[in-house]
Design goal:
This protein is an all-alpha fold. Helix content is 71%, strand content 0%. The longest helix has 38 residues. The two termini are 43 Å apart.
Length: 150
C-alpha cells in the first residue's frame, strides 16, 4: 500500500501575531476612550464648581467630588490600572446620568436645573458619561465573548 503525502497548509504565523496586535490596539483604544470620557466629565464638573456651583449647598460639594474622582479615574485608567477601575467609572457615570435626570425633574437635594443648562457643559457632560457607559459595556461584553465556557 502506497501512502500519498498530504500537503497540510496552515496560516502563516504573522496572521496570528497581527490579530493579537490588532486586539491589543483595540483594547488600548477603548481604554483610552474610557479614560478620556471620564476626564472630560471631571474637567467639566471642576469648571462648573469653580464658576459658581461651589456656592450651592450639598450639590456644590458633589460637583467637586465628582470632578476629583472622575479625573483621578481617567488618569488611572489611562495608565493601565486594573479593570475594576473601568467598571467603577462605568457605574459612577450611570450614577451621574441619574443625578442629571433627577436635577432636571424632581430636583436633587434642593438643586434643580432646566433643559440643557448650563450650555454647552450639560450636553458635553451627558455625552461623555453616556459614552463611558457604552465603552465599559463593550469591554464587559467583549470579555465575556472571549472567555470559554467550561
Amino acid at each position: 500500500m502506497t501512502s500519498t503525502p498530504t500537503n497540510i497548509t496552515s496560516s502563516p504565523p504573522t496572521t496570528a501575531v497581527s490579530s493579537t496586535a490588532a486586539n491589543r490596539a483595540g483594547r488600548l483604544a477603548v481604554r483610552i476612550g474610557i479614560a478620556a470620557t471620564l476626564a472630560i466629565s471631571g474637567v467639566i464638573h471642576a469648571y462648573l464648581y469653580i464658576h459658581g456651583y461651589q456656592y450651592i449647598p450639598t450639590s456644590g460639594t458633589a460637583f467637586l467630588v465628582q470632578a476629583s474622582v472622575f479625573c483621578a479615574l481617567g488618569v488611572l485608567v489611562a495608565a493601565g490600572g486594573p479593570a475594576w477601575l473601568r467598571w467603577a467609572g462605568g457605574v459612577l457615570s450611570v450614577a451621574a446620568l441619574i443625578a442629571f435626570a433627577l436635577s432636571r425633574t424632581v430636583g436633587l437635594s434642593g438643586f434643580t436645573e432646566h433643559g440643557w443648562n448650563p450650555a454647552p457643559q450639560a450636553a458635553i457632560s451627558v455625552a461623555a458619561e453616556a459614552l463611558t457607559v457604552v465603552l465599559v459595556a463593550f469591554t464587559v461584553l467583549s470579555r465575556r465573548r472571549r472567555t470559554p465556557i467550561t
